[in-house]
Automatic annotation (TrEMBL), chain A:
The chain crosses the membrane at residues 20-39, 45-72, 93-118, 130-155, 162-183, 214-235. It comes from the Bacteria. Keywords: Membrane, Transmembrane, Transmembrane helix. Residues 3-198 form the ABC-2 type transporter transmembrane domain. The keyword Repeat does not apply. The keyword Magnesium does not apply. It is a multi-pass membrane protein. This is ABC-2 type transport system permease protein. One of its GO terms (molecular function) is ABC-type transporter activity. GO terms for cellular component: membrane. It comes from Micromonospora mirobrigensis. Pfam families: ABC2_membrane.
Automatic annotation (TrEMBL), chain B:
InterPro entries: AAA+_ATPase, ABC_transporter-like_ATP-bd, ABC_transporter_ATP-binding, P-loop_NTPase. PROSITE patterns: ABC_TRANSPORTER_2. One of its GO terms (cellular component) is plasma membrane. This is ABC-2 type transport system ATP-binding protein. It comes from the Bacteria.
Length: 242, 209
């Protein structure tokens, strides 16, 4: 299983699309747009920190979903069947996929964090940086499950556009790209029900020194449960019969 | 070496899927090494080269062989696997940049690397050119000569005739003949000297309706 993890991590590092969407994209966006709101207070934080966390989350969600949806291609190519005729346990394959997917959340957080500390001299105590990184990693669990649901549930021609659409809707409406403070009221209420907003909220609150909010955790847990059910169903369906 | 021979749609790939535990049988049971296919696969006694099988992008030939070696309890040497599969010069090549024949050899390497007791090859040489095909079959033979079982499916009669010790002929999902190449000829009532083609046609069309 460790060997398979190593194998998957190597592939991940060599994937230029992943670096482009999950690291270069959010860092560039940060560098260009973070200056516009620099004087505002957003989500209880100075705008440079709040926007940093939003875009780090944007990159993390992009990476995690991309890895999950790529399972659709691996299925279609027969690679997952090939693995099933080795001693590797089928559950191990899913676990490694989930883990490698969620690990892609870490580089964007570090990269956008570095951009923020250079451009706007964002400073946080070392403990808060570490806490932020851990929360932004652990918080991707629902998106890992969503990605696997898409990857196991849909054919590759469908999985890629669906994945992109889901990502765009969730990240824009969840306030990862533009903070919800600039949203009209109705959209702001909607954002608060989305996993993306609640995911970034983990980061916002921890950067401000607050523990996660109960309502935020409840929303995240509900989405996680929903995505887990869909992912399990999709996985079962894809491995039944041929 | 056992050949599973039959026209397209005879059920060769289905038979292999059942044998490997990839598909459950509608009725009956499948036994492999005295247990279920899953048990045999988990124990690392089976290596398989499936017919469908583009590889995932981003990994190299060496990554692939190393992965297979790590998954099986008594793997062969990396260099030996690469040499046997005819990939010695391609270890650093990315899987998505291999030609059709090279990719087929990489899948052979993946199936072989764990040194399984049973090697299953589903139409293994279809995309190889003549030279690659010849060295491929030489390698498969050597592998079988070391006391392992190789089961391959093909619709190339001469491959079955030339390389198999035993041929199982399938038609429309049923076994219509099972024996050495000579016995297959005899069963079909064709002379020893005639090609297996005649026996094949006789056997597979008789039972078709």
């Amino acid at each position: 299983m460790r060997a398979y993890l190593r194998f998957e991590l190597r592939r991940l590092v060599r994937d230029p699309r992943l670096a482009f969407f999950s690291i270069i994209g959010p860092v560039t966006t940060y560098v260009i747009f973070s200056g516009w709101s620099a004087g505002d207070r957003l989500e209880g934080l100075g705008a440079p920190v709040a926007v940093m966390i939003g875009l780090a989350g944007y990159g993390a969600v992009a990476g995690v979903l991309m890895v999950g949806a790529a399972v659709a291609q691996e299925r279609a190519a027969g690679w997952l069947h090939q693995l099933r005729v080795t001693p590797l346990p089928p559950g191990g394959v899913v676990a490694v996929k989930a883990l490698t997917g969620s690990l892609t959340a870490i580089p964007p957080v570090i990269a956008v964090g570095a951009a923020a500390s250079i451009q706007h001299h964002v400073q946080l105590p070392a403990g808060r940086w570490i806490g932020l990184l851990l929360l932004m990693w652990v918080g991707t669990v629902p998106f890992t499950l969503l990605g696997l649901a898409i990857g196991y549930g849909l054919a590759p021609q469908v999985a890629v556009p669906v994945n992109f659409l889901v990502f765009l809707v969730l990240s824009v409406l969840g306030g990862l790209l533009a903070p919800t403070a600039y949203f009209p009221g109705v959209l702001r209420d909607l954002a608060h029900a989305l996993p993306t907003y609640r995911y970034a909220e983990l980061g916002w609150r921890s950067a401000a020194g607050h523990p996660p909010s109960v309502s935020g955790l409840a929303v995240l847990v509900a989405w996680t449960a929903l995505f887990a059910v869909v992912a399990t169903w999709a996985y079962r369906r894809s491995t039944a019969g041929r | 070496m056992v050949a599973l021979l039959g026209p397209n749609g005879a059920g060769k790939t289905t038979a292999i899927s059942l044998m490997l535990g990839l598909a459950p049988p509608d009725t009956g049971t499948v036994t492999l090494f005295g247990g279920t296919p899953d048990d045999a696969v988990r124990a690392g006694r089976v290596g398989a080269m499936l017919q469908e099988g583009a590889f995932v992008p981003g990994a190299t030939v060496r990554d692939l062989v190393e992965l297979a070696r790590a998954l099986y309890p008594h793997p062969l040497d990396t260099d030996r696997v690469l040499t046997v599969a005819g990939l010695a010069g391609l270890a650093g090549r990315r899987l998505d940049r291999l030609s059709g024949g090279e990719a087929q050899r990489a899948r052979f390497a993946f199936a072989l690397a764990g040194d399984p007791d049973l090697l299953v090859l589903d139409e293994p040489a279809a995309a190889m050119d003549v030279a690659a095909r010849r060295s491929f079959w030489t390698a498969v033979r050597e592998y079988a000569a070391g006391g392992r079982t190789v089961l391959f499916s093909t619709h190339q009669l001469h491959e079955a005739d030339e390389y198999a010790d035993r041929i199982v002929v399938l038609a429309a999902g049923r076994v219509v003949a099972d024996g050495t190449p000579a016995q297959i000829r005899a069963q079909a009532g064709v002379r020893d000297a005639s090609s297996l083609d005649q026996a094949f046609l006789t056997l597979t069309t008789e039972k078709d309706h």
